[in-house]
Specification:
Oligomer: single chain
Low-confidence stretches: 1-17, 19-100, 376-390
Order of helices and strands: HEEEEEEEEEEEEEEEEEEE
Number of helices: 1
Radius of gyration: 36 Å
Structural class: mainly beta
Number of strands: 19
CATH class of one domain: Mainly Beta
Mean pLDDT: 77
Helix content: under 10%
CATH architecture of one domain: Distorted Sandwich
Largest sheet: 9 strands, antiparallel
Shape: globular
Length: 390
């Protein structure tokens, strides 16, 4: 009886110690490494230092203020996310150079390497669309019953976004730009927008015009920034199809104060502009005369007409009557036919600049730069010695 009374508590203590020992072993085994880890032999994985080309942005902490973007060109930097899994890059194979209408990025605005140049405006159509003038619808062209074109036409599909070429205030938005009557839905400009820009040129105000639109999404008095959406391309007004008619006006907002937009729209990087004054032998302007341009390196050809009569106005410095923009830098041959004879001249297009020439009939070409506005060339007379008679 005494043995049974003393053995009960001892047995309980021993059983408790055994249970604790087993639990300790289980806990220690849970903290260790797996018995048979599988090696990572996947060759497609890359180190964690690489970051995906298009990561999903990590949200900012609640205490971090959201940056305020003062304009469309500012950058907002957010912390790069950390990924738990390695990532793999797969780049497409390099293909042949496209033969389409690809063009380099534009120079920043304003852009001027010459004190008399003024590339102040961006393209009113985005870079992922055709955004350069139609060859036969440049400034100074003649069509529609001898109407001289006061802008450039940029082909685009209906509904393509139209963008402000520079910052400024909307002074017209709707019908009737030419007639001045907002109720006139038969106005030749159709639905149009006019922007008076925040900057001018040589003390005069600058305006840009966007015409034949399908839809206008700004109102008079509204301020817009460079590249801001203002409406959609259409075919309202006097037009043969959907496109954007774009004008630059200086000094006032009227039909008779336009300038050639190709001297104001910034060119693509590495490309330039050709301007010329084409005359007969007596210095009379040759109207609507074809000027042919051919690249010496590639053999590619362009053609442009000199200005027709009417309301077009040349630049006061270049005093030109033809302009063609978006020419890749390099050497070219310019050809003009005068009185049945081909006159050829080699010229060089310089990146981001205007190359200038004059043609004067039978006297041919000159590559001398224009004289500054208001200045006349001064020729010093050469004294001629009078023979002394004996």
């Amino acid at each position: 009886m005494n043995n049974l009374m003393t053995s009960g508590p001892v047995r309980s203590v021993v059983q408790s110690k055994g249970i604790l020992f087993i639990l300790l072993i289980l806990l220690l085994s849970a903290c260790g490494s797996p018995a048979n880890p599988e090696p990572d032999n996947n060759p497609d994985l890359v180190p964690h230092d690489f970051i995906d080309l298009q990561p999903t942005a990590a949200p900012l902490p609640a205490s971090t203020p959201t940056p305020v973007c003062p304009n469309l060109d500012c950058l907002v930097v957010t912390p790069e996310p950390i990924f738990d899994e390695p990532l793999r890059f797969e780049l497409p194979p390099v293909g042949a150079e496209p033969v389409s209408a690809w063009r380099p990025a534009l120079y920043p605005v304003p852009w001027a390497l010459n004190p008399y140049d003024h590339f102040y405006f961006v393209r009113p159509i985005a870079a992922d669309e055709v955004n350069w003038p139609l060859a036969n619808y440049r400034y100074g062209g003649v069509f529609f019953d001898d109407v001289t074109h006061t802008g450039v036409d940029i082909p685009a599909r209906p509904g393509t976004p139209v963008l402000a070429a520079g910052p400024g205030t909307v002074t017209w938005a709707g019908w009737g730009l030419f007639s001045g009557d907002p109720r006139n839905e038969n106005d030749p400009y159709g639905l149009a927008v006019v922007i008076r820009h925040d900057f001018g040129h040589e003390g005069e105000m600058l305006f840009t015009v966007y015409a034949h639109m399908r839809q206008v999404d700004v109102i008079t008095g509204q301020w817009v920034d460079t590249g801001q959406y203002i409406g959609e391309v259409g075919d309202t007004g006097f037009t043969t199809g959907p496109h954007l008619h774009f004008e630059v006006r200086i000094g006032g907002n009227n039909f008779f104060q336009t300038r050639n937009p190709e001297l104001w729209i910034v060119p693509p990087q590495g490309w330039g502009v050709l301007a010329g004054r084409v005359m007969d032998s007596n210095r009379n302007l040759l109207l609507s005369r074809t000027v042919a341009i051919e690249s010496i390196r590639t053999g590619r050809r362009w053609s442009v007409f000199t200005y027709g009569p009417g309301s077009v106005r040349p630049d006061p410095y270049y005093n030109e009557n033809m302009v063609i923009s978006d020419l890749p830098a390099g050497r070219y041959i310019v050809t003009i036919v005068f009185e049945g004879r081909n006159y050829r001249q080699e010229i060089e297009i310089r990146p981001g600049q205007v190359t200038y020439f004059t043609f004067r009939g039978e006297f041919g070409y000159s590559l001398d730069p224009p004289s500054p506005p208001g200045m006349e060339r001064i020729f010093t007379p050469i004294p001629v010695s009078t023979p002394v008679r004996p």
